[in-house]
Amino acid sequence: MMALEDMVDTYCAAWNAAEAAERNRLLRVAWTADGRYSDPMVQELDRAALVAHIGVLLDRFPGSTIRRTTAVDSHHGGLRFGFVRLDAGGSMMREGVDFCQLGEGGRLHRIIGFFGALQSV
């Protein structure tokens, strides 16, 4: 079983991967096959839809990256962590927090993201 911090960092790396195949590979490592993702903009995305959604965001905000900013807190099969989206110059665009339910093999199963308004574009 992967350490929680490594799993979350692998998940975050998927948000930064320019190629869809690499996003899919990283999500296969960190996320269950039947995992679901929701945030204020999208609801109940499966892996293929999340790979596509990340691609749209990377096209909209070229050079932007997601970075975990907090420790990974966990208990009773759930976890949370804070993150920021940085623009290509390293300035914060938005910050947020993801709440996750763990599933098969201790991997991420359900992710519910919360984030604030864009700070810069």
From TrEMBL:
Annotated protein name in UniProt: Nuclear transport factor 2 family protein
Xref: SUPFAM superfamilies: NTF2-like
Lineage: Bacteria, Pseudomonadati, Pseudomonadota, Alphaproteobacteria, Rhodospirillales
